[in-house]
UniProtKB/TrEMBL annotation:
<dbReference type="InterPro" id="IPR007214">
    <property type="entry name" value="YbaK/aa-tRNA-synth-assoc-dom"/>
</dbReference>
<keyword id="KW-0648">Protein biosynthesis</keyword>
<dbReference type="InterPro" id="IPR004369">
    <property type="entry name" value="Prolyl-tRNA_editing_YbaK/EbsC"/>
</dbReference>
<comment type="similarity">
    <text>Belongs to the prolyl-tRNA editing family. YbaK/EbsC subfamily.</text>
</comment>
<protein>
    <recommendedName>
        <fullName>Cys-tRNA(Pro)/Cys-tRNA(Cys) deacylase</fullName>
        <ecNumber>4.2.-.-</ecNumber>
    </recommendedName>
</protein>
<keyword id="KW-0456">Lyase</keyword>
<dbReference type="GO" id="GO:0006412">
    <property type="term" value="P:translation"/>
</dbReference>
<dbReference type="GO" id="GO:0002161">
    <property type="term" value="F:aminoacyl-tRNA deacylase activity"/>
</dbReference>
<dbReference type="InterPro" id="IPR036754">
    <property type="entry name" value="YbaK/aa-tRNA-synt-asso_dom_sf"/>
</dbReference>
<feature type="domain" description="YbaK/aminoacyl-tRNA synthetase-associated">
    <location>
        <begin position="27"/>
        <end position="137"/>
    </location>
</feature>
<dbReference type="Pfam" id="PF04073">
    <property type="entry name" value="tRNA_edit"/>
</dbReference>
<dbReference type="GO" id="GO:0016829">
    <property type="term" value="F:lyase activity"/>
</dbReference>
Length: 149
């Protein structure tokens, strides 16, 4: 949130009781949020060894072939769960594209740009941020692309 404040980006946040990993659908249901506006953050590793971040709707699946094409890689694979904290600085279920240890190339599913706001993780378990997709794109220097099935 400090990064958003520093960038003068308007956002809202919600907290909820959460001690362990919970998936995005459970989070949306707990908070009464519309599934089509809640996005999850996935981290991948490319054939080159570089890491890439994808922000996609909670009910969608990442199409690894489309994702690889979007970032100019031969292939990408999901980052193993045991490496999430080491690579991103966040825990599983609390990962957000904003403020990772390093600024990794980030791609947001293209249909997000048709929405006035989306929800993403706030960077820790039990917190969701509501902000415009364009603000998320700008603060993470992301691109929009079709990367889901």
């Amino acid at each position: 949130m400090r990064i958003l404040d520093r960038s003068k980006i308007s956002y809202e946040y919600q907290t909820y009781e959460c001690d362990n990993f919970t998936d995005g659908i459970s989070t949306a249901d707990t908070l009464g949020l519309p599934h089509e506006r809640v996005y999850k953050t996935l981290v991948t590793t490319g054939k080159s060894g570089s890491h890439y971040v994808f922000v996609i709707p909670i009910e969608a699946e990442l199409d690894l072939k489309k994702a690889a094409r979007a970032v100019g890689e031969k292939s990408v694979e999901m980052l193993p769960v045991r490496e999430i904290t080491t690579v991103t600085g966040y825990v599983r279920g609390g990962c957000t594209a904003i403020g990772m240890k390093k600024a990794f190339p980030t791609t947001i599913q293209e249909n997000a740009q048709t929405l006035d706001y989306i929800y993403v993780s706030g960077g820790k378990l039990g917190m969701q941020l509501k902000l415009s997709p364009d603000d998320l794109k700008n603060v993470t220097q992301a691109q929009y692309a079709d990367v889901t099935f």
